[in-house]
Amino acid sequence: MWAIPAKGGGNRAFCDRMNSWAQGEGQPGLGYIFWREGEESGAGPVARNLGPERTEAMRKRLGLGVGDAVFFVAGKPKDFYKFAGAARTKVGEELGLIDKNRFEFCWIVDFPMYEWNEEEKKIDFSHNPFSMPNMAPEAFLALNAADKETILGLKAIQYDIVCNGIELSSGAIRNHRPDVMKKAFAIAGYGEEVLEQKFGGMLRALSYGAPPHGGIAPGIDRIVMLLAGEENLREVVLCPMNQKAEDLMMGAPSEATAKQLKELSIRLDLPKK
Q: Which CATH architecture fits 105-221?
């Protein structure tokens, strides 16, 4: 469950408007509590169900007062975390809580190495399978299938730098040890033969010895977008593509000729219009 404080949003009209917005985003709605003059225990269905003591404890914890509100998003993190972020941004924009004249930076760290794949009922990679697990290599190599809780709590050495909610750079310390890489893929259910088939070149290169290494890739176009005060990346890209991945200035992609397709041994089976 996420609590989203809303300074200055403590009235039913604003809470109803946010609830309608959430429903327009395909969600069942947003739970809320708001505080108004003469109603210290908070107002709204959530406040009535929590009771005055818990509602007051929550108000103090969030640093809210009369004229403020708090919204709630609940559910499985993988399903709701993006919506929770969008709701937080929406609240900030609607109430004028975002300072448009500042650049605020933060590092995002402690990315999960693995996650539980509910559909296949197995452990799977969460983000980047080639990052180094944030665990001593010997301890990592000693993990087995019975250590499910430890594995799902394992972090990877990955990091992003974000400015005003925009990811500017992403990086990681790379997995440079073949034995650790084989173990990492084995935990996710990929046998050594699959690893050799798909990433054999990388394994062979690392087998000759590689020092610990990592880096970060800055998104120059995103930095320019922030400096220019734009909200859409297409406004700062020289030849932007539309939502169909078409470059309208260059007229790309164009249709391939029959000769070009024959040279590449490609046969088209297009649906009939």
A: 2-Layer Sandwich (3.30)
HEC states along 236-271?
Answer: CCCCCCCCCCCECCCCECCCCCHHHHHHCCCCCCCC
Cα separation, 188 vs 190, whole angstroms: 6
Read off the pLDDT of residues 58-81 as tens digits, 9 standing for 90 and up: 999 999 999 999 999 988 777 788
- Separation of alpha carbons 65 and 33, rounded Å: 11
Rounded Cα distance, 176 and 144, in Å: 21
Q: Name the pTM for this structure.
A: 0.73
Q: What is the pLDDT of residues 96-143, one digit of tens each?
A: 998 888 999 999 999 999 999 888 889 999 988 999 999 999 999 999
1.10.357.10, 3.30.1360.30, 3.80.10.10, 3.40.50.2300: CATH of 2-94: 3.30.1360.30
> How would you classify the pairing of strands 111-112 and 114-117?
unpaired
What pairs with residue 171 in β-bridges? 159, 216
